[in-house]
Design a protein that fits this description.
Alkaline Phosphatase, subunit A; 16% strand
Amino acid sequence: MNKLVQEAIEKEAILATRRHFLQSLGTGIGSLAFGSALWGCSSATKGQQASSRIPPHFGKAKSVIFVHMAGAPSQLELFDYKPTLAKFDGKECPKELLEGKKFAFIRGIPNLLGPKANFLQHGQSGHWISDHMPHLATQADKITFLKGMYTDQFNHAPAQLLMHTGSARLGRPSLGSWVSYGLGSENENLPSFMVLASGGKNPDAGKSAWGSGFLPSVYQGVQCRSAGEPVLFIKNPDGVNADIRKASIDAINAVNQETYAEFGDPETVARIAQYEMAYKMQSSVPEVMDISKEPEYIHQLYGTNPGKESFANNCLLARKMVEKGVRFVQLFDWGWDAHGTSKDGSVDFGLHQKCLETDQAVSALLIDLEQRGLLDETLVVWGGEFGRTPMQENREGQKQSFYGRDHHTEAFTMWLAGGGIKPGMSLGETDDLGYSPVSGKTSVYDLQATILHCLGINHEEFTYPFQGRNFRLTDVYGKVINPILA
């Protein structure tokens, strides 16, 4: 009985410490805004991580740049060329494609919608790429397509959560957080996981798309801004210089160390690491986030505009981050939803405008990484959360004023390039209408397993204990997509 009482007392002490920590998060001196600063930033903790979490094989990729086009770009206007669909443009969709299916907005029997773009084959690979992406077409032989991707979520937020956390529900760690937990950072002055958003909004899944879930909070992504102060509250307030700041952090961490020695709460260790990383970031982040000192030919290559928020700026920043040792860079670009409810939300004009904003920069990213010798060790991933239907959306049974497509779970296209991936490949094929894969089906979990594999992580062995069982990013699913591996 005494033992049970003692265990209850110890548990309550741990919980009390955790509650105190959580309560203070919103009222700290600002450095807790860098709650994403990683535990694995010091050489000591990096060594500990490497010995306890990295499987015995080594990956070809050292870092990842995941470019997510939030809203789901239409594969049928970009990469999945379907001349048969063009022939049946305006015809009623075959009923067998609709029976037992659920769509976000389509009702009744919609008409098929032919591709609203022109396609040509490019490079020695012969990749079909539409005229919406002329810059990317010049890099065709660097990239590998997955044209048989599928998901089981047809709404944006759950599909984005599934893509980035392995679960359509809130509470799971994001892909970048898993990578940070396993590999840490190569630069002790920068977080291992950094996030940049463009398009005027965050993705529908919100900050949970780069959250740490049940992993310690130090592994969540640090969201930076390409305009204004790169991280909120990174500057010292008036009257506080670097020496005063350092002294205050040392004093706070001394108290935290005593607290940890007394109660043993791991979140106290995380808190110490957050303060230390916040202090380091005050000098390291402004430098890495400053693109104004890049040479003119780089600005022309990317199409950047220093001082303003843009996808082009974020692509250049992503290159700078991986060059400085950041392990995982997540780019989100909002505005790719094309239902046809407006001109800007159409698969002809609206999609073309989004491509004009992004095509040059993402192509420049591949060129720049290669010319710096970084592409072989940097895995670049591009795609959305699901695909678009071969049918024109008829929201609530009514034809839209503009060309648009509904959400589609059964087929979409993503591409990868760089570290660990064979260049110039295309895996997967959809039927003549682009409705379902007929070969090379790959799931979201397969993609996640492959990304981890390229980093040297076995997705089936890489786990974290939570609520009585070992969790992994891919849960009980996923297979490495071996045919595309270099």
